[in-house]
């Protein structure tokens, strides 16, 4: 089996490379970075721009599946996101179809439904309510994946990741996806025999998880980690909840309250614990 991983130079990509290389005959990692460090057995690296079909199409030749994690991972003005996050997704699906790829596993996001209230306990069938242009790109790609399945039979699994980073705030007590559970989720999205088109929330087995993932059980994803282990320390440090702040009441967190085009990550304490090879 040949797999292609986009966004290989990113933080989440750094944790996926080794397990992906171990489960296939050939892993092609790609990003726009000059290099990604030491390669694992069976892994090669190709520098390519997602927004350029002439660069990305050759990378997908002969691939069985694509794990598409490449994108700008923050809110930006629409014009900055258009190439990598919108056009880039189209290029992956169209190049994948032309190359005969069986399945695309996509790093979607809770920000596709970020304006829903956390108290609504939404499922994977919740209507799109993006909180930013970044979230809008996730909506676009989910709909793109559904269309390519309906019209062309190209399978895809869309992983609506809530927050895959160290637990540093009260929101993460519900939204946390551990790196081990991320790896399990991606693995199940690859090795499940048939998926058609599917959406699954990327979240660990948290006591306070604010979403209903029951309709994603067909993947066999059974998260093992729980953010409750961090609750006592985090809650002792947090201030009172502002019930008028969308950033505290909505699924998108700070992305729900920032102005369009303004960074959501700037309001979050994300620890860059990228895995080094």
Automatic annotation (TrEMBL):
It holds the Pfam family Epimerase. GO terms for molecular function: oxidoreductase activity. Residues 4-161 form the NAD-dependent epimerase/dehydratase domain. The keyword Transferase does not apply. Belongs to the NAD(P)-dependent epimerase/dehydratase family. The keyword Protein biosynthesis does not apply. PANTHER family: 4-EPIMERASE, PUTATIVE (AFU_ORTHOLOGUE AFUA_7G00360)-RELATED, NUCLEOSIDE-DIPHOSPHATE-SUGAR EPIMERASE. It comes from the Bacteria. This is NAD(P)-dependent oxidoreductase. The lineage of its organism: Bacteria, Pseudomonadati, Pseudomonadota, Alphaproteobacteria, Rhodobacterales. InterPro entries: Epimerase_deHydtase (IPR001509). Keywords: NAD, Oxidoreductase.
């Amino acid at each position: 089996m040949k797999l292609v991983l986009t966004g290989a130079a990113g933080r989440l990509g750094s944790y996926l490379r080794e397990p992906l290389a171990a489960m296939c005959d050939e892993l092609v990692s790609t990003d726009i970075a000059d290099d990604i460090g030491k390669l694992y057995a069976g892994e090669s690296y190709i520098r390519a721009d997602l927004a350029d079909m002439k660069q990305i199409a050759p990378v997908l030749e002969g691939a069985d599946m694509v794990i598409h994690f490449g994108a700008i991972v923050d809110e930006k003005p629409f014009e900055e996101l258009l190439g990598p996050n919108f056009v880039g997704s189209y290029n992956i699906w169209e190049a994948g179809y032309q190359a005969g790829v069986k399945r695309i596993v996509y790093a979607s996001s809770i920000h596709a439904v970020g304006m829903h209230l956390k108290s609504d306990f939404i499922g994977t069938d919740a209507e799109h309510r993006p909180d930013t242009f970044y979230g809008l790109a996730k909506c676009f790609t989910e709909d793109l994946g559904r269309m390519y399945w309906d019209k062309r039979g190209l399978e895809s699994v869309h992983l609506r990741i809530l927050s895959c980073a160290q637990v540093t705030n009260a929101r993460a007590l519900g939204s946390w996806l551990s790196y081990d559970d991320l790896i399990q989720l991606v693995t199940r999205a690859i090795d499940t025999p048939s998926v058609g088109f599917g959406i699954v929330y990327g979240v660990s087995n948290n006591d306070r998880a604010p979403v209903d993932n029951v309709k994603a059980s067909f993947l066999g994803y059974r998260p093992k980690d729980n953010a409750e282990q961090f609750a006592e320390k985090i809650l002792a440090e947090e201030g009172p909840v502002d019930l008028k702040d969308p950033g505290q009441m909505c699924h998108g967190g700070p992305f729900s309250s920032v102005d369009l085009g303004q960074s959501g990550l700037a309001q979050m304490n994300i620890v860059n614990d990228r895995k080094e090879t």
